[in-house]
Amino acid sequence: MSPNLKLALDILCYSGMVSQLGTVKIASGTGPRYMINLALMATEKAFDTSKTADAISRLSVTDYREFSSSDSQIQTYLSSLLLPSETCSICSAPLPQNAKFCSECGNKIIATSIVSTLLEESIDGLSVSDRLKDRVRPKFPTVGSIVQAKRNELMKIPYIKDVRSRIIKNAADEFISG
User: How far apart are CA 160 and CA 31, in angstroms?
Assistant: First the structure.
């Protein structure tokens, strides 16, 4: 496994998007086995049913399918990923990826990224004490304002010095990374 791929998988494991679950036999010996977080699969509509509970109940450790590049099901799966997954909020018509306007009703599509949504969140979701949140909130009310702030700006707040400023910055970074 290339060092870059290993690093990418380690980051995905750290973020909770995938989990390492033992090893699997491959052509050159054995390699690590990874499982994608089920919530991510549900969000990305990767199951064959819209009812997540049904999809999860059908999962089994002994009944799984491993894909290889020569597997005919890979093309079917990749084709399904290219189908529109979003619908227009006005007319419910399917929207192609990166659409700017609905082709049916002309509604302007406003794309919001997950990161920008998280940056606009209140600091109430941070994993720091309520007392720290109360001290920080008047000057830095959103997660984005904390992410963009320098630590010395945070240290201007009473009772927040080196250690607490680092805790607050780390909490904001963790909040965004999931």
Answer: 46
Query: pLDDT tens digits, residue range 69-91?
Result: 555 655 665 566 556 567 888 89
Say how far residue 47 (Cα) sits from the centre of its chain.
17
- Domain residues for the domain of 141 are 114-177
Give per-residue pLDDT as tens, 51-69.
767 766 666 555 455 555 5
Strands 29-36 and 94-95: unpaired
Closest Cα partner for 176 from 15, 35, 41? 15
| Total number of residues shown for the chain | 178
Q: Say if residues 108 and 101 touch (Cβ distance below 8 Å).
A: yes
Count of other CB atoms within 10 angstroms of residue 76: 9
pTM of the model: 0.46
Is position 140 within any domain?
yes
